[in-house]
Amino acid sequence: MHPAFSVVFFTTATGAGYGLLALLGVLAGQGFVSPDFWLGLVSMGLALGLISAGLLSSAGHLGRPERAWRAFSQWRSSWLSREGVASVATFVPAGLFAVGWVFFGRTTGWVAVAGLLAAVGAVATVCTTGMIYASLKPIAQWHSRFTLPGYLIFSAMSGSVILNALLQGFAVGSKTMVAFSLLLTFFGWGWKLATWRHNDRLEIPTNANTATGLAGGTVRSLEWPHTEENYLLKEMGFRIARKHSAKLRRITQVLAFALPVLLLIAAFALPWPYAAVLSALATIAQFAGMLVERWLFFAEAKHTVTLYYGR
Amino acid sequence: MTCLPAHTDKKLGLVIDLDTCVGCQACVTACKEWNTGGYMAPLTDIDPYGGDADGVWFNRVHSYEHMTEMGGRTVNFPRSCLHCETPACVTVCPTGASYKRASDGIVLVDEDKCIGCKLCSWACPYGAREFDTDVGVMKKCTLCVDRIYNDNLAEEDRVPACVAACPTSARHFGDLGDPASAISQLVAERSGVDLMPELGYHPTNKYLPPRAHTPRAASVPAPRLEPVQAEGGFLGWVDRMLSH
Q1: What ipTM goes with this model?
Q2: CB spacing of A63 vs B199 below 8 angstroms
Q3: Which of B28, B196, B207 has its CB closest to that of A304?
Q4: What does the domain layout of chain B look like in residue ranges?
């Protein structure tokens, strides 16, 4: 599948943003984070900023963005529509939570309820994003039991690493928070390795024989119906060399998982100003690594239409 | 609504005979010609005479080599929308632009509602939908809704343009929901198949596999050419001179 940058950025940014929002909603609402003005402004600003930037980026991917409002109508059948509804609905409690924290300086009472609702909305939205991909039968690498949990795990992971960096930046961090983000990064790493292992061993029943209805023997593409690449090949026939893929997997592992793990271990061991710098570096490395991971998620996905072209 | 109808009164569709298709592309051009002025018009072409030609087509004919223990053969394979009974392209649509008609089962796109998110084309395993980058919306085969119900046409012309154009009668149109229809009988008689049945889309269109190889076919090759004999006389002299 063609890895359009707008969609790669959209899923990475909103994943991190909703992860951060959910953690803030739960932790701050339950009194684990102090209702400090600047911390509230920066952290909620970052969470809602990542979400909004991602959603705007996804709208840029549309052929007719001025009609985007229509996408809220088909939530009965479409995961994409459900994602639209969930993302907009989540802005309501998230906005109330941000206002309560930043302008009223409190994270208790109705603000805590808004925080919990924002967390529920964030998790629901990430689920709908994951289901858009998990529900597509023509793409075996996506239509798997690894896709939905993957989206949730990576969202929690990147959200926790950002939250840890924010708390460290405001000198209110804790060893527990460092350990929590470290643990989630390890979990994310393991999940990605398991996903790749699963995808590399996929036995897909669909092949050129079932695609053409020609039973038995081998079916080889002799001639395409067109001389140049068409929409199908540009959008779904994206190919990536095997060695290229292996290299990108290594880059993903280093940036998204290995480097943040090392930096967070160091942050756990060292005192405040160092721990804050290391936590910030871990966040930057992981975000870059997750962009590569999401690029690979698309580039390594093979659509059944490529069978018609012998690819 | 992008929810699917529980039942369609008819299951209009095509049956394509892979035994008789000669790959002449007449159905492809007839489809393009009709539909670029029809319901889904225009079928935009980008750089049609340049080195990077691209454009929207509803029907594309591939050629394959099918090798079995019986030998090899070339199979021409027209590929277009199969108007599935459970089309995921419809249910994934967030706007309601894609729909399946309860009356005849035809899958259509309302171009005025399409936002061009392209998700339907990802959900179709058969590559039936093509995005029009110029208009910014998705386009697909309409089974020529503007022909098959068109009172301005003579009755025999009320078939999809691809069916009307086929010179070998490899394309058939009819109600596949009615077991008594000629087209259903044809599928039963020739053991028509679904494409990618394992994905569970339940295509309406059926493909008739090529008939088995027959022992009546010519199996003796033409005699081999013999090497030129050395000749005497004038021609022999010319041959020797030219051979130097």
Answers
A1: 0.93
A2: no
A3: B196
A4: 12-208
* Cis amide bond preceding B42, omega within 30: yes
Residues in chain B within 8 Å Cβ distance of A139: 122
pLDDT digits (tens, 9 = 90+) for B157-204: 999 999 999 999 999 999 999 999 999 999 999 999 999 999 999 999
Domains by residue range for chain A, with CATH: 5-62+70-309 (1.20.1630)
Report d(CA A94, CA A129) in Å as an integer.
18
Q: With an 8 Å Cβ cutoff, are A80 and B94 in contact? A: yes
pLDDT digits (tens, 9 = 90+) for A151-165: 999 999 999 999 999
Rounded Cα gap, residues B146 and B79, in angstroms: 21
Task: State whether residue B199 sits within 8 Å of chain A by CB.
Answer: yes
Question: Can you spell out the DSSP letters for B98-140?
Answer: EEE-TTT--EEE-TTT-----HHHHH-TT---EEETTTTEEE-
Residues of B in contact with A303 (CB under 8 A): 122, 125
Chain A CB within 8 Å of residue B14 CB: no
| CATH class, range B12-208 | alpha beta
**Angstroms from B238 CA to nearest CA on chain A:** 46
